[in-house]
Amino acid sequence: MEHGFLTPLLLMLLIAIASIALLRRLGLPAILAYLLTGVVSGPSGLNWFSQAQMHSVAELGVVLLMFSLGLEFSLPRLWAMRRTVFGLGSAQVLLTLFISAAMACYWGQSLTAAIVIGAAIALSSTAIVLKLLNEQNWLRRRHGELSVSVLLFQDLAVVPLLILLPLLATDGEALALQDVFYGLLKGTAAFVGLMAVGKWLLPKLFDEIARSRSNELFVLGTLAVALSTGAFTQWVGMSMALGAFMAGMLLGESQYRRQLEADIRPFRDLLMGLFFISIGMLLDFGLVFEFWWQILLLLIAVVVGKGLIVYLLLRLFGEPVQNAAASAITLAQVGEFSFVILALAVNYQLLDRQISTELVMVAVVSMALAPWLVKHSVEIGKRMQQSVHSQLLEEPDFPVEISGELVIILGYGRVGQTIARFLKVEAIPYLVLDMDPARVTEARNAGEPVYYGDACKGSILGQLGISQAGMLVVTFCDSRALEEVVHMCRQMAPELNILVRTRDDKSLDALEQAGATQVIPESLEGSLMLVSQVLYKCGIPLSRILKRLESERRNHYRYLHGFFSGGESDFTLEQLHAVCLPDGAWVVGLHLRDLPWQKLRVELRAVRRGGAEIEQPAADWLLKSGDILLLQGKPRRVERAEQFLLQG
What we know:
This protein is an alpha/beta fold. Helix content is 64%, strand content 8%. It folds into three domains: 2-383, Na+/H+ antiporter like fold, CATH 1.20.1530.20; 391-516, 3-Layer(aba) Sandwich (Rossmann fold), CATH 3.40.50.720; 563-647, Alpha-Beta Plaits (2-Layer Sandwich).
């Protein structure tokens, strides 16, 4: 009997491994591989396991998923994004749920089933969307921020849904309003109770566990907390996932958050895989083939309907067409928490198996389409933007004459507008190109020479007269587009002065190689401005300050790179390290030119002797005991250099 159970289990794992490897190559999410494994090994396939056999283990996956979600739940972050999270997010969830439920009721579903269907359709895939946005470096873009805000509220909305689902299971009896209020009250009381106890107990518990310095104990403690809080909420008549979410939320603000997340991830991923396998076992391909046309129509209705709702809401919130369209396409799929809702609804007998199968298939196909939709969302948004704002792309009638004094500004954010104001005061002619249609319209109405267009397109730059202009200033900070724009502008105008603003100096050399005349890193220039004010207040002559600042810029900010390391230093960056030479040091008595600095791959910044600091000492400097050498370089190289200097 034992071998009869282990053999199918091993075969199921092999199918899962092969499916994940295959779908990864096709660029599809691993969730689809788990669902395929469930179909093959479940009642619709080889019938190795029943869905009931997998249910208990699969439920643990949901518990750990909700615990991880709680760890990511940050009250300060939520408050900072409150307008879009609670405004846009709540509007999207409630409107999608209401329309979906109304359509379900129209097609003959009960009110309870309609609420479940609406809730499942209203949710999008947090895991897939965040992963894809991160891969494209779009998390900090406006459409990425809007998508994350909606996803954050959707994750938050799962909590009341987990409270309501057990209440809806009334065995055919009408659900009384007082039952809903009682259930919500009980859920709130459990939440407050867990928060009160956990706020005091959990930090002390993990302090004790951390003192033991045992990884095994930390992992066991994490699992015990997640499962025990889940068991408590189940005991009071709610779902285990709700308790796990509360525990994660309590520990999310603690110093152990990262360690907890790292420890729980392997268990979560494995058990979530089993959960999605159990969802795959729910699929009945007989029903799929019989009702394929309904599934196809439902898929189109869900993807188009969700996208349209998000788009209209964002336009109502004043977002431009491009951002609204990109966010709508990004959020058009059905999410992994929809599987949780559907699985619980089937367990509580709230939903017919046929409807559940159709919705699961819609979710699976929409998630399969998600990578393509997200990757092309910005491009589709741009095309919609251009069709709506085509009048902004017409050949401009420049209010200034194109001449060698003309300054072209790419980007009209705060930096671009500040530069334009100073140029206007000095009566220097300028033209601006920007991609935000709302900003362009406002500026044009105010009489500013601002035009809509993509700086990556040479034809638009040609219309602006880049080859005859005197200077180009690039003020946006999209690292991917910067090099492309600078290189293209340098090819179009070999003699043009090109100034580029960046956040830091990580791409300084690359931009200069692409053709930038000067790169101005915000963070380092801010440091220099502060230094200049400090020196000026200390009585240093202005001419000397300006000379020192110019020297720093000419030397690529070399003295702003090395810093003494601290407890939370980034060990990928160059650091300063002081090496004191004792009497027996190997290099005592040698000249600086005798040392293999190129092989050591560190830089000698200065030598300190007798309280005085000598920057860039001469090659014939004779090293003596008591000298302090200031070395700059990557931490491991500095460590090896110190060992060489002391021991040879």
